[in-house]
Design goal:
- With about 375 residues, the chain is mainly alpha-helical.
- Helix content is about 55%, strand content about 5%.
- It has 13 helices and five strands.
- The chain has helices spanning about 1-5, 55-65, 70-75, 80-100, 115-135, 150-165, 200, 205-220, 225-245, 250-285, 295-305, 320-340, 350-360; strands at about 100-105, 110, 170-175, 185, 190-195.
- A three-stranded mixed beta sheet has the order 3-5-4, sandwiched between helices.
- Helix 6 packs across helix 8, helix 8 (about 205-220) packs across helix 10 and helix 8 crosses helix 11 (about 295-305).
- The chain is elongated, with a radius of gyration of 37 Å.
- The model is unreliable at about 1-5 and about 5-20 (pLDDT under 50).
């Protein structure tokens, strides 16, 4: 008995509650907060309690003041600090623009170009990967080096590259197996893409040299960097129009403004670039001992294939008829360069072009583009 009395000392001295035979148990202590039980699938109860000191959120929203008001905008527009920032920004933009003005040696055209050749080549690397992805996505393929069409293109490029003045570029020739597309382009850095459908229209290596010389000329003249630079000015004008309208007609301003700027600036610039590339490519193919007269035959065949072309003012390229007329005007000079060439791949024209471009002057025989 004494032992049982001593064992009762081991019982806890705090009583947590009392139990009853009532089937509905009650707890003496209220549950102030219910914590979620870990690994429990029971849904948690939503707490609808609201602090009476905060009030109704709908009433607070109704009494809220707008972040932007007409009075605030008016004070901001009259702020002297804003005028200073705008003035400095405009002055900096004007100085940046005139510091990057160049003269195209063959046409005397003044242009804005703020991108170096290294920057343009770095940007074109992503374009190369995109082209390869598009060809694979459409189920196309690239012809291997053993194909006769690839060998023809490489043979022509082997004579054009030395006269381009860009021998240090990492040149790579890819021919896309697509007999229904007549196109070719040369990306900055020496990446050449030719669709197999162009080769039958070119007919021979001289005709193919006319196209590839034209595409190489775009890189020699820095036309890609110029197009990238023009987007800076076009976007600045477009965003200025949106700000001037107060953001009321953002969609209409962006669409109509972009279309107007495209017709007034981008497309005329594209046509002048194409004419410059036509002239430069004609001189380079003649210097590589290709017959420049084959360029006329090629563009006449292209004119017969594209009978329904848009008006010239809506296109980034000159019409085939105007292009042929310009080539005829330049042909005596091209034939003369062919006769003067030593056919050893001397980059005489490209060297003179780069020198004139760096000095900001025109070449001796400036052409009307």
């Amino acid at each position: 008995m004494r032992v049982l009395r001593n064992l009762s000392l081991l019982r806890p001295s705090i009583r947590l509650g009392s139990y009853s035979t009532n089937p509905t148990p009650t707890c003496r202590f209220p549950i102030l907060h219910r914590f979620p039980r870990p690994f429990s699938h029971a849904t948690s109860r939503r707490n609808n309690w609201r602090d009476p000191r905060r009030g109704d959120p709908r009433e607070q929203l109704a009494r809220a003041r707008p972040l932007v008001t007409s009075e605030g905008l008016s004070r901001f527009a009259r702020s002297p600090s804003l005028h200073t920032v705008v003035l400095l920004s405009v002055a900096g933009a004007v100085a940046f623009y005139f510091a990057n003005i160049e003269t195209v040696p063959v046409s005397g055209r003044r242009r804005f170009n703020c991108f170096s050749e290294t920057q343009v080549e770095a940007a074109s690397e992503a374009q190369v990967k995109r082209i390869e992805w598009e060809v694979e996505r459409q189920g196309g393929r690239f012809l291997d080096d053993r194909d006769w069409r690839t060998r023809v293109v490489k043979r022509v490029m082997a004579r054009l590259i030395p006269v381009s003045g860009m021998q240090d570029s990492d040149w790579e020739v890819r021919v896309i197996a697509d007999p229904h597309t007549a196109n070719a382009f040369v990306l900055p850095g020496g990446k050449v893409f030719v669709y197999s459908g162009l080769i039958p229209i070119a007919r021979n290596e001289d005709g193919l040299a006319a196209v590839l010389g034209h595409e190489i000329a775009h890189n020699l003249a820095g036309h890609v960097g110029e197009r990238m630079s023009s987007q800076i000015g076009i976007n600045a004008l477009l965003y200025s129009l949106i700000l001037l309208t107060g953001g009321i007609a953002i969609l209409g301003t962006s669409v109509l403004g972009g279309t107007v700027l495209d017709l007034l600036f981008s497309r005329p610039m594209g046509r002048r670039q194409e004419s410059e590339a036509d002239y430069i490519g004609l001189m380079m193919m003649a210097e590589a001992c290709y017959d420049p007269r084959e360029a006329l035959g090629f563009w006449r065949r292209m004119e017969r294939l594209h009978t329904e072309e848009p008006p010239e003012w809506m296109s980034t390229h000159p019409s085939n008829n105007n292009r042929i007329q310009k080539l005829q005007e330049w042909m005596p000079r091209a034939v003369e360069r062919l006769e003067e060439s030593d056919c050893k791949g001397t980059a005489g024209f490209a060297k003179l072009f780069r020198q004139a471009l760096s000095r900001g002057v025109t070449m001796d025989q400036r052409q009307d583009m």
